[in-house]
Amino acid sequence: xxxxxxxxxxxxxxxxxxxxxxxxxxxxxxxxxxxxxxxxxxxxxxxxxxxxxxxxxxxxxxxxxxxxxxxxxxxxxxxxxxxxxxxxxxxxxxxxxxxxxxxxxxxxxxxxxxxxxxxxxxxxxxxxxxxxxxxxxxxxxxxxxxxxxxxxxxxxxxxxxxxxxxxxxxxxxxxxxxxxxxxxxxxxxxxxxxxxxxxxxxxxxxxxxxxxxxxxxxxxxxxxxxxxxxx
Length: 231
Hints:
Largest sheet: 2 strands, antiparallel
Helix content: over 70%
Strand order of the largest sheet: 1-2
Number of helices: 12
């Protein structure tokens, strides 16, 4: 892994750094407000590294939720990663031992980068994906730790602070929209999500919408392929 490749990975992940520091600080503050110190922030950020699920985990921990409830909730919240993983089988094939960490570090934002990033000429793509994954993970750990430390010093109303997660998703969607000429996959995703939201309601629409998006994209795969490369 060259210094040139590391520099490229850092530059590519700078937008995620800005979002992860804000999101991580919000999580760290909420964790501290609920009585959990910096070791909890670091441990959860390293092992869970689940963004929205970490926010939800605070409520599960403080409410004394059972292991079964926690497991089912985690599955429902993170089910989308099953579809992410399927779409990255070819990109991660042959990555060797690095693949194990890249699987653990696959977040929504890292997925967006891996799908669109062009590896610098002459460099190993797998090393590039690995370095981007490491950078994003470090940003998240730093943000959560900093937020937890600040949470013991700053006293204010934390209501609504978890909205930063939604804000980051919107920002990523807009960035993806502006940086590609092919908008049909995005429109399919929006349409399928809205349809499932109307049919299944806000509590149960996530998995059906992901399944519908995958099915439609598979059916429309040929029209969405140009020059032999999937869009």
